[in-house]
């Protein structure tokens, strides 16, 4: 009986160790960003497929598509879809 209690206790402790509590900063969803190519595009199709552009300074802006976003030197990467709106 003691062995069973020991095994159950160890299993419970191991389960808690695998799921650490998240801090508020960790709850922000991470977006997979695609880096812009080093050879910037010269011309882009006018197709509206919005992306969230990531600027060198860490700011974000919604651009019409990935090509038009990467034409701008200040933009380093982009993620599919428009940028989420800032919380008030």
TrEMBL record:
Top-rank taxon, per record: Bacteria
Stretch forming the signal peptide: 1-19
UniProt keywords, alphabetically: Signal
Keyword Signal recorded: yes
Name recorded for this polypeptide: Kazal domain protein
Species in which this protein is naturally found: Teredinibacter turnerae (strain ATCC 39867 / T7901)
